[in-house]
């Protein structure tokens, strides 16, 4: 393993603040410790090249905070988030309120950053973790185009807030988390970008409010345990309750939300309410052309960087292919290092459930001279190997534990290339390459019968059976069938939460997008590998464009993902455009897991020994599944049953027991 060393104090309430400075005066930064004991997480096999990592971290404390001055609490919260040598904290202290920030410089304009941004004669102070994608538009509206090249994104954001007030945040495009003190009204204002790329959490106790980028920093300071309700929702494949985190008593600012906190008041409001009126295009070709142009702008905005090269994930699918090819066209000087996860040597064939996407990915790379293709033959890293490092880095139960094996390996290789920006397409299935599979049912439900008949005929002509067409037409009127792999592994007596009925393609896609919070994952990758992860498929403009498209536009002529196939036909290989197969990334995870079944058994027994964890997960079924580990995995349902039931239970149980330790 090549995970970096993490500070033992990350979850140690006795940790001391490091290297804090006030009002932007910068003495040398302080180092951080290494020793994480094996009973916590074995990270001793570390890569010394990453000892100088830093993560942009925000902190704040306000109002009546007992014997501790807010600035001391602020220092401590910064110290409980990953820090680095020679990177001081900037603190702003006004007695009853304090703000703090450490900055991981990932943008050229970060060279002009001055720490805590201030405005209106000192009445406003802001700590921001921010990348603005509409800098030019904001500068033009503010009349500061001539000085834009010397303005950090935080300074530009403060200028906008000075001019237009808090409402200016609604016009920010990009990834951000903002902590703003408004001294004129004695209020703390917290805000996140529309899709939640940067995390932000807070805790209220008595009259005191504390704020941090990561929930685990607040949990460490407070000694908080895991939130059982949030963990049950995770096991059930549902979003955590609104505003909740995975730690009891730690609240989360939702994506697209502004939280205003006064000494005796709290108001939560969603500022992102996208226009969902259907867009009109003369033809499917016009819609595809508009999507490709807008996507190019989304990728271009995410290529603002300090190093020459960038990295991407590259499978044989449409999303990662579109991201990689568009980046290669837009990067100018520099290279796009495209990384493809491949099976370990000697693992091929249906019996192993392995699908090698490397050959198709190589075809795309050959089309674009700026792409440097890296086929990564994954080591035999087991999902159980990811639990300890994941607890330290992510501060939540790990989603899709099987995929974490190859993601970690690729992150290691990206850092070995000296690249610090990674472009991904995590939201592509909900945006640029949405299948349009709900189109027929949506047309029937909305009473557009003539159009439904035509679309049904298109589906039939595209090769779908009459039974499949009938099923698509009646889908909105039927209850969702139970998952083929079975119910989640909840402990006896724990009820599975009831999901609210969601009608309509737009509502369903928004619900899926909110199932996981991307901010936690982006911050973890930055903490663990010094990689700034950016997703152009989650660009607010792309999301709004795709939500406004009538759903049948995504499947023109009855062809699933037909919009994306047309939009990116000129930059992707013909084999990718024509393929309808579903990628099976990490389809080999069970082989490495089988080699470490003793480790999995040991983890299950640790979960069983934890009162908190065993009250949530079904330990008996976990033991049974391991005892009857399959010898062959050619049946997809077998693989799904273990991936979708056992692995989430391991992730949830490990997280809860570690929080209680």
From TrEMBL:
<dbReference type="GO" id="GO:0006529">
    <property type="term" value="P:asparagine biosynthetic process"/>
</dbReference>
<dbReference type="InterPro" id="IPR017932">
    <property type="entry name" value="GATase_2_dom"/>
</dbReference>
<dbReference type="InterPro" id="IPR051786">
    <property type="entry name" value="ASN_synthetase/amidase"/>
</dbReference>
<dbReference type="Pfam" id="PF00733">
    <property type="entry name" value="Asn_synthase"/>
</dbReference>
<protein>
    <recommendedName>
        <fullName>asparagine synthase (glutamine-hydrolyzing)</fullName>
        <ecNumber>6.3.5.4</ecNumber>
    </recommendedName>
</protein>
<dbReference type="Pfam" id="PF13537">
    <property type="entry name" value="GATase_7"/>
</dbReference>
<dbReference type="InterPro" id="IPR014729">
    <property type="entry name" value="Rossmann-like_a/b/a_fold"/>
</dbReference>
<feature type="domain" description="Asparagine synthetase">
    <location>
        <begin position="291"/>
        <end position="641"/>
    </location>
</feature>
<dbReference type="InterPro" id="IPR001962">
    <property type="entry name" value="Asn_synthase"/>
</dbReference>
<comment type="pathway">
    <text>Amino-acid biosynthesis; L-asparagine biosynthesis; L-asparagine from L-aspartate (L-Gln route): step 1/1.</text>
</comment>
<dbReference type="InterPro" id="IPR029055">
    <property type="entry name" value="Ntn_hydrolases_N"/>
</dbReference>
<feature type="region of interest" description="Disordered">
    <location>
        <begin position="14"/>
        <end position="38"/>
    </location>
</feature>
<feature type="domain" description="Glutamine amidotransferase type-2">
    <location>
        <begin position="121"/>
        <end position="219"/>
    </location>
</feature>
<dbReference type="GO" id="GO:0005829">
    <property type="term" value="C:cytosol"/>
</dbReference>
<dbReference type="GO" id="GO:0004066">
    <property type="term" value="F:asparagine synthase (glutamine-hydrolyzing) activity"/>
</dbReference>
């Amino acid at each position: 393993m090549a995970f970096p060393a993490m500070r033992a104090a990350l979850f140690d309430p006795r940790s001391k603040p490091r290297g804090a400075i006030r009002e932007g005066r910068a003495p040398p930064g302080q180092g951080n410790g290494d020793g994480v004991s094996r009973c916590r997480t074995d990270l001793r096999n570390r890569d010394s090249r990453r000892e100088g990592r830093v993560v942009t971290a925000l902190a704040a404390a306000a109002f009546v905070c007992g014997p501790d001055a807010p600035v001391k609490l602020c220092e401590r919260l910064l110290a409980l988030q990953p820090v680095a040598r020679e990177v001081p904290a900037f603190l702003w202290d006004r007695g009853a309120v304090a703000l703090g920030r450490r900055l991981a410089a990932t943008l050229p304009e970060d060279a002009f950053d001055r720490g805590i941004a201030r405005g209106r004669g000192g009445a406003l102070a802001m700590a921001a973790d921010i990348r603005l994608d509409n800098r030019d538009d904001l500068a033009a509206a503010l009349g500061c185009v001539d000085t834009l090249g010397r303005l950090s994104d935080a300074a530009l954001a403060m200028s906008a807030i000075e001019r237009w007030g808090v409402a200016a945040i609604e016009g920010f495009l990009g990834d951000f988390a903002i902590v703003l003190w408004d001294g004129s009204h004695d209020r703390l204002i917290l805000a996140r970008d529309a899709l939640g790329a940067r995390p932000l959490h807070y805790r209220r106790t008595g009259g005191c409010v504390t704020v941090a980028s990561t929930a685990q920093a607040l949990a460490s300071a407070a000694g908080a345990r895991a939130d059982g309700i949030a963990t049950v929702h995770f096991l059930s494949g549902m979003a955590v309750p609104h505003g909740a985190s995975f730690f009891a008593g730690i609240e989360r600012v939702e994506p697209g939300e502004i939280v205003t906190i006064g000494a005796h008041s709290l108001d939560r409001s969603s500022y992102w309410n996208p226009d969902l009126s259907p867009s009109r295009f003369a033809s499917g070709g016009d819609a595809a052309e508009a999507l490709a142009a807008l996507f190019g702008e989304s990728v271009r905005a995410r290529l603002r960087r300090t190093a020459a090269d960038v990295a991407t994930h590259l499978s044989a699918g449409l999303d990662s292919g579109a991201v990689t090819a568009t980046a290669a066209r837009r990067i100018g000087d520099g290279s796009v290092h495209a990384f493809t996860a491949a099976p370990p040597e000697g693992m091929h064939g249906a019996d192993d459930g392995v699908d090698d996407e490397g050959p198709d990915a190589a075809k795309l790379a050959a089309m674009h001279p700026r792409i440097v293709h890296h086929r990564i033959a994954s080591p035999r890293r087991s999902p159980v190997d990811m639990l300890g490092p994941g607890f330290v880095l992510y501060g939540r139960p790990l989603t899709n534990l099987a995929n974490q094996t190859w993601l970690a390996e690729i992150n290691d290789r990206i850092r070995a290339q000296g690249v610090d920006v990674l472009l991904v397409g995590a939201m592509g299935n909900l945006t640029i390459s949405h299948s349009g599979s709900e189109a027929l049912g949506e047309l029937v439900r909305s009473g557009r019968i003539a159009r439904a008949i035509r679309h049904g005929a298109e589906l039939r002509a595209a090769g779908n059976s009459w039974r499949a067409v009938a099923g698509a037409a009646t889908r909105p009127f039927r209850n969702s069938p139970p998952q083929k792999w079975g119910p989640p592994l909840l402990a006896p007596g724990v009820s599975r939460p009831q999901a609210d009925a969601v009608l309509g393609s737009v509502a369903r896609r928004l619900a899926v997008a909110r199932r996981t919070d991307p901010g936690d994952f982006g911050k973890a990758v930055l903490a663990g590998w010094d990689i700034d992860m950016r997703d152009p498929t989650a660009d607010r403009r792309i999301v709004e464009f795709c939500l406004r498209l009538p759903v049948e536009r995504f499947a023109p002529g009855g062809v699933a993902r037909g919009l994306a196939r047309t939009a990116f036909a000129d930059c992707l290989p013909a084999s990718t455009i024509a393929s309808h197969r579903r990628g099976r990334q990490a389809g080999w995870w069970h082989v490495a897991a089988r080699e470490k079944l003793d480790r999995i058994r040991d983890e299950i027994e640790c979960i069983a020994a934890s009162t908190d964890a065993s009250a949530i997960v079904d330990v008996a079924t976990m033991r049974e599944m391991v005892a009857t580990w399959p010898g062959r995995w050619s049946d997809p349902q077998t693989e799904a049953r273990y991936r979708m039931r056992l692995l989430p239970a391991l992730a949830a149980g490990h997280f809860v027991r570690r929080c209680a330790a």
